[in-house]
Amino acid sequence: MIDPIAADLERALNEPGEALAPAALAIAQLEYPRLDPGPYLAQLDEYGREAARRLQGLADRREQIIAINRFLFGTLGLAGNRDQYLDPRNSFLNDVIDRRLGIPITLSVVYIEVGRRAGLPMRGVGFPGHFLVRCDETASDPYIIDAFNTGRLLSESDCLELLREHARQGGAEGAPPMDFPWHPSFLDPADRRAIVVRMLNNLKRAYVTLRSFSHARRTSDLLLAVDPSVVTELRDRGLLSYHLQDFSSALHDLERYLRIVTRAEPPQLSSRHGEHAGQDDDPDREENEEEFKAIWEHVKNLRRRVASFN
């Protein structure tokens, strides 16, 4: 049976052009199965017309961005939801439009969709830890915009500080600090499929944090529909099924995951260690081996459980 949400999402991803809103509204069907995207697309059209009106007579790109900011964050009152960052509603475009609250990526989607309707060349930027927007003056000198912080214009040094903050946080709660050397590619535009994958990952993380494992597994289903090559998603979906005591599904995904990773070439995880990469004291290698052992133990346990049902 074809998943209707996955079908709608794939259809949106294959539409001509670069529109993000149809795909974002397809994701929202996870929570709102009967959602009609039409009124929200019409609302974005209306916002775009008003933004275009406010840009009339402004030739300078910076002034145009400031005018968009005044409209979105002043007149409309869009804001980052700092107090309830992990509320799943922050990931649903219909809720973001209705509540005027969101996280960096969904606020960026609104920003991009309104900006494009007003005639500005807006693109998404998959910056580590904090999604951004770019508006190209020239390809080598774009304006970088932080939609989570009322459209603040960022310099390269501002972006570097964002990166350092992400590294200090370790990228995830409880993880060790990460070392992210700066690279100009961090500000490259992200394509539509990559943006959707990031939206889904944010949503899955929110659901897992709330221990809403059934919703998290449905989000994993969509992630695998969008990109079946993401092997780690098989692992995650298998573990979510395990939490839900759906042992047959968990066994299927985890066995498949182990078959794929054992056939694959060993990844070059630690080139930064130079000639010592791959030695027994390589922490990345050790961590992967520990994860493999833990999943293999899950599989053995699941085999016993499933066999007992037959």
Helix and strand layout, with pairings?
Elements (H helix, E strand, L loop, with lengths): L3 H10 L7 H8 L9 H18 L5 H15 L3 E2 L12 H7 L1 E2 L1 H14 L4 E4 L6 E7 L2 E6 L5 E3 L1 H14 L22 H18 L3 H14 L4 H13 L3 H17 L19 H27 L1
Parallel strand pairs: 1-2
Antiparallel strand pairs: 3-4, 4-5, 5-6
Helix pairs in contact: 1-2, 1-9, 3-4, 3-6, 8-9, 9-10, 10-11, 11-12
CATH class of the largest domain: Alpha Beta
Strand segment count: 6
Q: DSSP helix count? A: 12
* Domain module count: 2
Described by strand count, sense and barrel closure, the largest sheet is: 4 strands, antiparallel
* Alpha-carbon Rg, integer: 21 Å
List low-pLDDT spans. Answer: 171-176, 265-283
Helix residue percentage: 55-70%
Q: Pairing-aware structural class of the strands and helices? A: alpha+beta
Query: Which overall shape is indicated by the principal axes computed on the Cα atoms?
Result: globular
CATH fold name of the largest domain = C8orf32 fold
- pLDDT averaged residue by residue: 87
What is the element string, with H for helices and E for strands?
HHHHEHEHEEEEHHHHHH
Strand order in the sheet with the most strands:
3-4-5-6
Whole-Å distance between the termini? 25 Å
Per DSSP, what share of the residues sits in E-state strands of 2 or more residues? 5-15%
The CATH architecture of the largest domain would be Roll
